[in-house]
C-alpha cells in the first residue's frame, strides 16, 4: 500500500468507576488514536500509553511527539508500506514501542480492510468466542471490593484479577477467595510494587490457590522473579518485563516465569505479540491477553489475538461497559449469554471488524486533530 496521511486524535473518555492500581488512580482514559489513509483503505489504531509516565516511560504527549516528528514521516516517505514493514521502517527510533504499535495496528487495519480479511483470520484464530476475565482495581475498603467482585461474578466473568500492593494484599485476597469459593478463578497483579525482601510475605498468598501472581518486582529484575518462583507454589507471571520474543524466551528459560501476559502495545505491535505467542506455545508456557483500558478499537484487536490456541487462560478482555458508559465503536462489546456466558464474540468483519464513531472522536477531543501528510 501507499500511505497517504496519518491523523492523530487525542480524546478523553470518562470511566464508569475510578480504576486504582499500585501506581495511581484513573477517573478517565486519555487515549491517542491513530487514523491512517492509504491508497486502498483507511485504518485505526489505538495507543495504549497513559497520559502520565507512571506505568511506563511512554505517555501520550511523548507518543504524539515521536509519531508526529519521526515515525509517521518515515512511513509516509516509504514507497510502499505494509504491517510487516512497519517495524523495520521504524527501527531507527530506539524504543517507543507503544507509539510504534499504534501505527502498526492502524496500518494492519487498513491493509486487511483493503483485502476484505478479518484480523482474527490473519492471526490464525481458532475460536469464535474467547473467555473473559476482569481486572479489579484497589478499592477504598473491603466491603466495596466485595460488592464490585460480586457484580462481576453475577455478570458472568470467568476470572477475577485483583490489583494488589503492600498493605492491600492478604486480606482482600482472602475475602475474595471466600466469596468465590475454592473453584473460582482468581489471580493477582502487583504492577512491580514489591521487592525481594517481600518474598516471605508474598509466599503467604499460596494458601489462596491463585492462578498466578503477576509482575511483583521491577520489570528489569528477572533474577528476583526467579528467586520468587523457587520459594512459592503460585505460578509467577511476567507482564511489563516481556518486551519481545527474545526476552520471553530468556525469562522462561531462566525460570523467571511460567505464564506470560501478552500485551501487543508493550511489545511494539501485534506481529511481535504473535511471535511471543508462538514461542510460548513451543516452550509449553500458557499465555493470556492483558488489557490497558482499551476502547473498542484496541479491544477488538485483543479479542482477535486471544482467539489463538496458546491463550489458555481468560484475559483482561472485558466487555465495553466494564470501563465505559459509551464506547468509541458502533457496536460495543457485550458478554455473551447461555453457553457463551462470560465470553466475547471474535469480530469477523474485515480489519478489526469494528467501526469507529467519528462523532465521539469529535465530541471527546482534547485538542484539534494533528494531520501528517507526505
Structure description:
This protein has 374 residues and is α/β, with parallel strands linked by helices. It has two domains: 3-116 and 357-373, Enolase-like, N-terminal domain (Enolase-like, domain 1, 2-Layer Sandwich); 121-345, Enolase-like C-terminal domain (TIM Barrel), CATH 3.20.20.120. 36% of the residues lie in helices and 20% in strands. It is built from 13 helices and 13 strands. It has helices spanning 60-77, 83-90, 97-115, 119-123, 142-155, 170-180, 199-203, 222-231, 245-254, 264-267, 270-283, 296-306, 358-363, and strands spanning 3-21, 24-38, 42-47, 129-131, 133-136, 159-163, 186-189, 213-214, 236-238, 259-262, 287-289, 343-345, 370-373. It has a seven-stranded parallel sheet with strand order 5-6-7-8-9-10-11. A four-stranded antiparallel sheet has the order 3-2-1-13. It has a two-stranded antiparallel ribbon with strand order 4-12. Strand 8 (213-214), helix 8 (222-231) and strand 9 (236-238) form a beta-alpha-beta unit. It starts with a strand and ends with a strand. The model has no long low-confidence stretch (mean pLDDT 96).
